[in-house]
Design a protein that fits this description.
376 residues; alpha/beta; Rossmann fold; Helicase, Ruva Protein, domain 3; 3 domains; five-stranded mixed sheet; 13 helices; globular; binds adenosine-5'-triphosphate; binds magnesium ion
């Protein structure tokens, strides 16, 4: 084993030899690792254009643990360390996410768990957003409250459970925020997945990813599966003859949506910027399709009022005026392109407040950039 002190990379020679060297070199008793969680990192460095794909499919966790133990036995591990595979997929990397105890040595009794670098990320947001903070979108919020009721009490609904809803609308109108709010309030796990990531590189990948996603959600119910960019599937389906795996993704998704039946405690929320591109068979599986329109003048005012209260500096402009001047902007634009930008200018200028001149300057700049920011 060669390893620079404090390095997060482990390069092996032979496992047995490394075990001896490791303990001898340090001349201290190194405890053996009780458990370790590894994360699949793919090929962190490779020659440009190298077509090797990343993402593991593991059918048996137990077998993987045996395999991992066998090759890394004797390695001293700490959090953050990278381990490289040497046999089946040379140079494939894994990072140590958790290790108990820290700075311990992998032994034959070490429990090894792999957290796949999956296409799905579980939400870890700390500031918990709620539906009350979503300005406007009243019918959607009503439906979301029903979904909340279902997630908290699936048995009550029986065969009449809401299964899937579809959000569509321009970027920045609150689709992800709303899904997140539902998950927070139901105390449910939310699994975020991008449809484009669900389309695998190899035939079979996509289907497996979808079933893994739904299996995970069912195991963790009550839960929400949030599939963003759903149009990626609809879009790509027109290239079906070139990419057979895309139709396989559609088929898998349809199958899973059909199975997400009574009392499973799983709700699917799909989101897209481009409804016309969604495969009709998929669209049909959603109970309700909701439009997230751009905010009207009252909603813009509501959004501006809500976020300006959270600004660290006072804002000295009539927000009604800003709301009037910002037709066509989304909630995200109002927060990031107007309020945040104005705050940053005030801080840069060492101004103690966000003056009306600053905000007007920002508004003028946005107006002169006439290019639309939303096209299908
Ligand atoms: N109606 C709204 N009420 C309050 N805040 C909003 C609203 N719409 C947007 N925002 C703000 O804009 C941010 C971005 O919104 P969000 O990520 O939910 O948009 P999206 O519709 O999912 O966009 P995209 O299509 O780009 O994924 C939110 O986190 C929130 O701060
Ligand atoms: Mg989004």
């Amino acid at each position: 084993m060669t390893k620079r002190k404090d390095s997060s990379i482990e390069i092996h020679t032979s496992p047995k030899e490394s075990s001896k060297k490791a303990t001898k070199k340090r001349n201290i008793e190194v405890p053996s690792t009780k458990s370790i969680v590894l994360r699949d990192m793919g090929y962190p460095f490779r020659v440009k254009g190298d077509p090797r794909s990343t993402g593991l499919e593991i059918d048996s966790e137990e077998l993987f643990a045996d395999y991992a133990r066998e090759q890394w036995m004797g390695t001293i591990v700490h959090q953050g360390l990278y381990l490289f595979d040497r046999y089946i997929m040379p140079d494939y990397a894994f990072q140590v996410l958790e290790v108990v105890p820290e700075e311990s040595i992998i032994s034959k009794d070490t429990k090894i768990h792999l957290q796949s670098r999956s296409v799905v990320t579980e939400s870890t947001s700390t500031r918990l957003v709620t539906l009350n903070e979503v300005v406007g979108h009243e019918p959607i919020k009503r439906k979301c409250k029903l979904i909340l009721e279902y997630l908290l009490n699936p048995a009550k609904f029986g065969e009449w459970a809401p299964r899937a809803i579809l959000f569509y609308g321009p970027p920045g109108t609150g689709k992800t925020m709303t899904a997140q709010a539902v998950a927070n309030q139901a105390d449910a796990k939310i699994f975020f997945a991008k449809a484009s990531d669900l389309i695998g590189v190899h035939v079979g990948d996509g289907g497996r990813r979808i079933s893994a996603l739904f299996d995970d959600a069912r195991k963790n119910s009550p839960s929400i599966i949030f599939i963003d960019e759903l149009d990626a599937i609809g879009l790509a389906r027109s290239f079906q003859s070139i990419r057979g795996d895309v139709s396989e993704v559609v088929t898998a998704l349809l199958g899973e949506l059909d199975q997400t039946a009574e009392a499973s405690g799983v709700v699917v929320i799909g989101a897209t910027n481009a409804l016309p591109l969604i495969d009709p068979a998929i669209k049909n599986r959603f109970d309700t399709v909701f439009e997230f329109a751009l905010p009207n003048i009252e909603e813009r005012l509501g959004i501006l009022q809500y976020y300006s209260k959270r600004l660290p500096l006072e804002i000295e402009i009539d927000l009604q005026e800003v709301a009037r001047m910002t037709e066509g902007l989304s909630g995200r634009d109002l927060r990031d392109r107007i309020l945040k930008e104005s705050l940053h200018i005030a801080i840069t200028d060492e101004s103690s407040t966000i003056t009306s001149e600053i905000v007007r300057g920002v508004l003028d700049k946005i107006k002169t950039k006439s290019s639309p920011n939303y096209t299908i």
